[in-house]
């Protein structure tokens, strides 16, 4: 079932087999193009894995896509959100309004949803601006990155923990906590069919964003969490993966191994970058010198902000491993190779 990555205009709902359907839902203005929403059949109504971006076009794609495979969105029993990001959680609230469905999410991301919803618009922008300034971003970059904020996701009804079974009558769908991309990211093991819904955790050709926010936090290590979570998923065996982006593919464990190697190589390159620097560097300077899929100068503001978060996560892991150190008493914070 593996195929090349195709634009959203070429995507169609498909029968993924075994009572599972895949419905592509567009992400307006995003190079990812779309999120794959999965619908699991049950006698009590379908259960969705994720819901898609909160946008009228996306809503029509979800509603009509389900309709094209014989499902009425008003019959949806529940929405399991793999993580709180807007291309996954955005439409969950509207599905609930339409059908009375429950929304389920891991407790760590539930806490983030509550935090986001409690932020007033001005306070959120101030938080972002201060974070960017401490990372070494310039005033113009700070203004550009903080310009837009997605609508916050709906509050979930059900709080999930690692190992919980999801209420899907006739099926065994188990929660696998896989932090890294977000603190509460989950995969979902369909145990009665030896398949796994991987959300953004394991994707067939790209890797998920792993970042720290604020960038200079020293009390978390999301990249190490992510690498540990990949090992956890590998331990489940060579399950067929149903990811939230790109395409279905046959061997989750093999792809997880490739992703671990990718990040270990990136850690080596960042350490080498710092060893060549004549003085400690800010997070923003390090991000600008890293190798990306396009030149730093061509990055739009939002992607620069995400790249800085990715740089920060790798720096934090190197710091935890004792390879690098952060300078004390400097603003913005700077990093150097450990002497």
TrEMBL record:
SMART domains: Lactamase_B
InterPro entries: Metallo-B-lactamas, RibonucZ/Hydroxyglut_hydro, Sec-metab_biosynth-thioest, WH-like_DNA-bd_sf
Transmembrane segments: none
Any one Pfam family match given in the protein's UniProt record, by short name: Lactamase_B
Domain of life: Bacteria
Metallo-beta-lactamase domain sequence ranges: 34-245
Official protein name in the record: Glyoxylase, beta-lactamase superfamily II
Organism of origin: Streptosporangium subroseum
